[in-house]
Write a structure and sequence with these properties.
four-stranded parallel beta sheet, 8 strands, about 45% helix, about 15% strand
């Protein structure tokens, strides 16, 4: 699984390990994934998913048989309108949320076919509905959704399942801080007044559920929001 060093990725690694999988924890921050791998009796592989060399090394570490690929690495950078877009940030978002998903999946597909595996892509409700200030991230997550749907059509005759999990508001380690370049006050404002946003564990529980369904059962797409978020733009906030 990619993006295993924190948040949804780290939580999913723990849930998959509890479900009986040997988890290969891949991420850039080696110290974090080594600690996680030790905790869950997994393996740590340092991997920047935007690096072809790192993806090749991950593929070599995985070997010839893979049961579950969780494409979790991703991220949002900035919240400016399109008219003020930081196009370098847009390129970074497309690279990590779309190109990397395609690259990792392409590289590991032979092992997934051999293992009759499951591909899980961590999408977002941003891949379904646009919102002001989210143009770059919205475009990237729509792109990830398109990759998932295309893969499912192209692999219809292969023993591989393909699922997108599309969370709404999740208060997880680092996501909002990364988006706002470490500005804690802006990150906190995203969740202000929302009594119970989703947590990384909520999403990890769904990851494990998807991975452990019978082999003939494919959950195409799971959209999950906190009860307080009726839609992308409609969130119940309390003082």
């Amino acid at each position: 699984m990619t993006g295993a060093s924190s948040g949804i990725g780290a939580a999913s690694a723990r849930y998959l390990a509890r479900a009986g999988f040997e988890v290969i924890c891949a991420a850039r921050r080696l110290d974090r994934i080594e600690a996680l791998a030790k905790e869950i009796d997994g393996r740590a592989v340092q991997c920047d998913v935007t690096s072809a060399e790192d993806v090749a090394a991950l593929t070599a570490a995985v070997g010839d048989n893979l049961q579950v690929l969780l494409n979790n690495a991703g991220g949002a950078f900035g919240l400016e309108p399109v008219a003020e877009a930081d196009l370098d940030a847009w390129r970074r978002m497309y690279e990590v949320n779309v190109i990397a998903v395609a690259a990792v999946t392409k590289s590991l597909l032979p092992a997934l076919i051999s293992g009759q595996g499951t591909i899980i892509v961590m999408g977002s409700t941003a891949g379904q509905v646009a919102y002001e200030g989210g143009g770059g991230y919205v475009a990237a997550k729509h792109g990830a959704k398109a990759v998932v749907d295309t893969l499912r059509l192209e692999l219809y005759d292969q023993p591989v399942r393909i699922t997108e999990i599309a969370p709404g508001m999740v208060r997880s380690e680092g996501f909002a801080l990364t988006r706002f370049n470490g500005d804690q006050s802006k990150a906190d404002a995203v969740y202000a007044g929302v009594r119970e946003p989703l947590t990384a564990d909520d999403i990890a529980d769904i990851v494990a559920y998807v991975a452990t369904r019978p082999a003939h059962v494919n959950l195409d797409r799971i959209t999950v929001r906190p009860r307080a978020q009726a839609a992308q733009h409609k969130v119940h906030r309390q003082p």
